[in-house]
Design a protein that fits this description.
Radius of gyration of chain B: 31 Å
CATH topology of chain C: Immunoglobulin-like
Chains: A mainly beta (272), B mainly beta (168), C mainly beta (155)
Number of strands of chain C: 12
Keywords (chain B): Signal
Oligomer: heterotrimer
Number of domains of chain C: 1
CATH topology of chain B: Immunoglobulin-like
Order of helices and strands of chain C: HHEEEEEEEEEEEE
Organism (chain B): Sphingobium xenophagum
Largest sheet of chain B: 7 strands, antiparallel
Number of helices of chain B: 1
Radius of gyration of chain C: 18 Å
Helix content of chain B: 10-25%
Largest sheet of chain C: 7 strands, antiparallel
Largest interface: A-B, 64 and 59 residues
Number of domains of chain B: 1
InterPro entries (chain B): DUF4402
CATH architecture of chain B: Sandwich
Strand content of chain B: over 45%
Shape of chain B: elongated
CATH class of chain C: Mainly Beta
Distance between the termini of chain C: 28 Å
CATH class of chain B: Mainly Beta
Protein name (chain B): DUF4402 domain-containing protein
Order of helices and strands of chain B: HEEEEEEEEEEEEE
Chain lengths: 272, 168, 155
């Protein structure tokens, strides 16, 4: 009897742990974080409600473009060029709206169908996952008798790129203009990622000793999309880690895109 | 668990040897089962606090209330501001050292009281790109400036804003 | 196909015992094990810290803190066919799961029971298999597969 009670207590405390105090409606998990697809193929993305309330999520396909500074901006579908908007017609996805109980997940199926007349190259759109706010549920503050109160509901979304490759577009990456600087006690590496060819490049950037193996600073998940021939990358560097190593430095970019076969490009970095 | 299975195998070997000696060989059959798992890199976005302008009593002149990313408030002249204020805050969890970009999709929004009264809000974040930490964590904040009209009607004003976190 | 591979496995396990074969008790045939369902740990969202995934033999999955189990899990299922009332032991060997790019992880399978007393007839005796999977910190993405061996023996 005593034992059963202890068990019950353990179960109860267990059930409480996954519920984070800050979790709320709309919290979401999306996996994987990018899709590379062939001309006629399928894939899937899992959406999980990590919040503590049942939430409806809307899924849409949007256009984004990269700037030379490396930021990602929205592109209005109406004003996009035919080439830039082409991916919207190649990619299908379902469902477009899902309601998930807390901790529940669902798979969104992605299909790619490319007409035979489509010129080879890389086409891209971004899948946007966004919680649909429950207006009635928005934290409604008590209206002040002689004033006003404000309720602002954030709707937050996640986008992941869906990259469609028709044929086998080639591409390559290189690094240029690497410079290390120290400003206001913060060290940072600025470098330009150069891209050539018809496909995007994607990989990991590492700062390391010229003859070393252990990176001093790392950023993963960096892309240069076909719309840019080069993009800027800023890599924050821990000064203490930098001070611990001596000798010449290099920065290298290791491509993790499956089409690149792990290609590595590197360039020397002068110490400030 | 490994130890246990090794022990179990040892025990069987002994049983097996014993059985063989008694000229009654133990028969064994084996089969192969397949095991699969799909590991995906994921991103999780969680709201950690709402953008809260606190309580405001309007005046005869138009003025603004600004909430900074550090939760501090600047109350425009003539207005009375009270209550606690917070900037909007979001937590992002993903793979270690991975980079993501952050954008406010509609930085300029209008709040309404459900009737004919409205106020404009400007939203901003200083984070446009961020690199997640070695444990895969990151966060960003949203600051806001509320435009309160002259003799703005009392009531509860509500509105929505959209932020998105993008993978490359 | 599965049944055939199980048969092949039996032939293999018998062959290293030439000396005793002549004395084999013919009434006591080797049990037949048939793999009916593969184990699937489902889809897992990995974290920077790694962790463990436990699948019970009844098919319930649990991810340690930081990992997210996203569904699609399923326990493995096996059938044993053999003579009535004999007791058999069930043993499992760990599996190495690989993703085809050289990255791997270890799965420790766990059966619903370690022994069973056989009922007569084909596919009358079943047991299920779950297991524990350990993910390293920053385990690379991918679809991992591997095989584990199940041995069923008379005592």
């Amino acid at each position: 009897m005593k034992r059963t009670m202890m068990m019950a207590a353990i179960v109860a405390s267990h059930a409480l742990t996954p519920t984070m105090a800050q979790a709320a409606a709309g919290d979401l998990l999306v996996a994987p974080t990018r899709l590379i697809m062939g001309a006629n193929s399928g894939g899937e993305v899992v959406v999980n409600n990590t919040g503590d309330k049942a939430t409806t999520y809307r899924i849409s396909l949007v256009l984004r473009k990269m700037t030379e500074q490396g930021t990602i901006e929205s592109v209005d579908e109406a004003t996009a060029s035919q080439r830039d908007a082409a991916a919207l017609d190649l990619i299908t996805y379902a469902p477009r709206k899902i309601t998930l109980a807390p901790q529940q997940s669902q798979t969104v199926r992605i299909g790619v169908r490319v007409p035979p007349t489509m010129p080879g190259g890389e086409y891209r759109a971004h899948l946007l996952f966004r919680a649909v706010p429950d207006v009635a549920d928005a934290a409604a503050p008590q209206p002040a008798a002689d004033g006003m109160s404000i309720s602002l509901t954030p709707i937050f979304g996640v986008t992941i790129p869906v990259i469609v490759r028709v044929g086998e577009p080639k591409g390559s990456a290189s690094l240029n203009n690497a410079r290390l600087s120290v400003q206001e006690g913060q060290a940072q590496l600025d470098v330009d990622l150069m891209r050539a060819g018809d496909r995007s490049v994607y990989g990991t950037l590492e700062l390391m000793q010229a003859d070393g193996k252990t990176p001093i600073a790392t950023i993963k998940g960096i892309a240069a999309y076909p719309e840019v021939a080069q993009r800027h990358i800023m890599l924050p560097v821990d000064r203490a880690a930098l001070a611990r190593v001596s000798g010449p430095l290099k920065v290298r970019f290791v491509e993790t895109d499956p089409a690149a076969g792990g290609a590595v490009s590197e360039t020397a970095v002068a110490r400030p | 668990m490994t130890n246990k299975s090794v022990q179990a195998l040892g025990l069987t070997a002994m049983l097996f040897a014993g059985a063989a000696l008694s000229i009654e060989p133990a028969h064994a059959a084996s089969a192969t089962g397949d095991a699969t798992v799909k590991i995906l890199r994921a991103i999780t976005v969680t709201k950690s606090s709402d953008l809260d302008f606190g309580k405001i009593v309007p005046s005869a002149a138009a003025a603004t209330v600004a909430i900074a990313e550090d939760n501090s408030r600047v109350c425009g002249s003539g207005l009375s501001c009270f209550g606690t204020t917070t900037a909007g805050a979001f937590a992002v969890v993903g793979a270690a050292n991975e980079t993501v970009t952050v954008a406010i999709d509609n930085p300029s929004i209008t709040l309404t009281d459900g009737g004919s009264n409205s106020m404009a809000v400007l939203l901003a974040t200083t984070t446009s790109a961020m690199t997640l930490s070695g444990t895969g964590d990151g966060s960003f904040k949203v600051a806001g400036t509320l435009n309160v009209g002259a003799n703005q009607a009392a009531g509860t004003y509500s509105g929505q804003y959209a932020v998105s976190v993008s993978y490359q | 196909m599965r049944a055939i591979s199980a048969m092949a496995a039996i032939a293999l396990s018998l062959s290293p015992l030439p000396g005793h074969m002549a004395h084999a008790d013919t009434r006591k045939q080797a049990p037949i094990v048939e793999a009916a369902t593969d184990i699937s740990f489902g889809t897992i969202a990995a974290s920077a810290a790694g962790g463990t995934i436990e699948l019970t033999p009844s098919g319930a999955v649990r991810c340690s803190a930081g990992l997210q189990c996203l569904g699609g899990e399923r326990a493995g299922l096996f059938y044993v066919t053999g003579p009535k009332d004999y007791m058999v032991g069930i043993m499992l060997a760990p599996a190495q799961l690989t993703n085809g790019r050289g990255e791997s992880m270890t799965a420790l399978p766990k059966a619903s029971q370690s022994t069973m007393v056989l009922d007569p007839g084909k596919r009358k005796n079943k047991f299920s298999v779950g297991g524990k999977l350990t993910l390293s910190a920053a385990q690379p993405e991918g679809a991992y597969t591997g095989s584990y061996e199940v041995m069923v023996e008379y005592f």
